[in-house]
C-alpha cells in the first residue's frame, strides 16, 4: 500500500515537473488564442447576417427585376442561420469547410447584388441604402481582419503541436490540428450561390438548378 502511494506521489511530482518543460502551457495558450480569434470571426459574420434583411428590403423597393437574386440571398441567409456555428466547429474540419463555403457564397452573392445596384440610380442616391452599403463594406473589412487573425492563431497553434517536445505532449493530451481558412478559389462553383451544400452528403449536381443570377457582374 505504501509503495503504491509513493509511486502515485512520485508520478504526480514528475507530471508537475514535466508539464512546464514539455510545452503544455504554450499549447494551451495557443489554443485559447485560436478560440478567441474564432469567436471574433463568428461575431463579424453575425454582424453581416443581421444587415442582410434591411439591405434586401431596400433594394426590393427599387429593383423589381432583381426578385430572383433577392430571393436566393434570403434563402441562403435562412440556411446559414440554421447552421450550428459554434466554438466547437473548429474541431470538425468538414463542418468548418461547409461553414466557410456557405459564407463565401453569401459574400459573393451580396457583392453581385451591389454591382447590380449600379443599374438603379435612384437606389444609389437613397441615403438609407448608402448608409447600409457603408455598414456592409465596413463589416466585410472587419470579417477580413478577423479571418486573418484566425489564420495566424491557427498557424501558431498547429506549429506548436508539431515541434519537439510539444508533439509528444499534444499526442498525450489529444491536441489535434485545427482547420485553417482556405482560399475561396479552392471551392468549386463559388460564384453560384444556390450550389452551397449545408448537409453532410454532397448535393446532387444539376445543369439548370444552379444557374447564376440573370444580371452579370
Quick rundown:
With 217 residues, the protein is mainly α.
SSE layout and pairings?
Layout lengths: L1 H20 L2 H37 L6 H16 L10 H24 L4 H5 L1 H34 L5 H8 L44
Polypeptide structure, described:
This protein is an all-alpha fold and 217 residues long. It has a single domain (27-75, 92-195), classed as LemA-like domain (de novo design (two linked rop proteins), Up-down Bundle). Helix content is 66%, strand content 0%. The chain has helices at 2-21, 24-60, 67-82, 93-116, 121-125, 127-160, 166-173. Helix 3 packs antiparallel against helix 4 (93-116). The longest helix is centred in the first third of the chain and has 37 residues, at 24-60. The protein is elongated and about 85 Å long. The protein starts with a helix and ends in a 44-residue tail after the last helix. Mean pLDDT is 81; it is low at 188-217.
